[in-house]
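Model: You mentioned two targets. I'll fold them one after the other.
Researcher: Yes, keep them separate.
Model: Target one:
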Amino acid sequence: MDTSSDNGSLPPQLIFLKRLVTALGVVMIGGFLVLIAALVIRLNADPLPLPDRITLPEGVTATAFTQGTDWFAVVTSDNRILIYDRTTSALRQEVTVD
């Protein structure tokens, strides 16, 4: 008995189904590789810098930055959250994190 994959002995519907499953597998593998590449590129990107108009207090470094509709917030290395006004860039509020 010959165990080679001879498509001549298969009905045309099964040949089509075999090709369709193979194409689906190739597309899924390609999509997975694109997803992994996008994640690697995104995670290795440089973080966004703070806006130039925000000046932090002397000796303080920023560890996180977020923004709302009319404010910026900077989390500092000394466990404070500094909230600045978006239009004037003035310090609006300071929150100490315990």
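Model: Target two:
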Amino acid sequence: MQTLQFSPMTADEFALFWPTFQAIVAAEETYAIDPNITYDDAFSLWCKTPLLSIAVKDEPGQLLGSYYLKANAAGPGSHVCNCGYMVTPHARGKGVARAMCEHSQQAARQHGFIAMQFNAVVASNQVAVALWQRLGFSIVGTVPNAYCHSSLGYVDTYVMHKSL
């Protein structure tokens, strides 16, 4: 795996990332985001609302993916974080998601979070489920038929958790 660069995502980088975001959401296979989300709403969701939004690039500076980090809940639940990850099509299968998850855990610890929770990992997304498990996440709950997959219909989602 090549050396990756992690930096706060800029508005210009999000513009480059938008086709990836849009395609992933429109596929309705992994994210419970309205497939008709506008650019401005997507930018707000991914870059403005979270504590961090990170762009991941290779050494020449090509955008490979992005992740966000935010508190999973407010007040008494704010010590647990939540993240979302998206990888550009040309970078899939090259370890970028793993690197982003590892980086996000370090960032989470630096911001005082004591655990990370994924609220709705689509059960049919076996690649992601297996990766998160290899990185130490456990399935702590199953929500039956919580996601309407574009080709599989209703599928379960997992709540996955890891203490940091």
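Researcher: Noted. Anything on target two?
Model: The chain has a mean pLDDT of 96.
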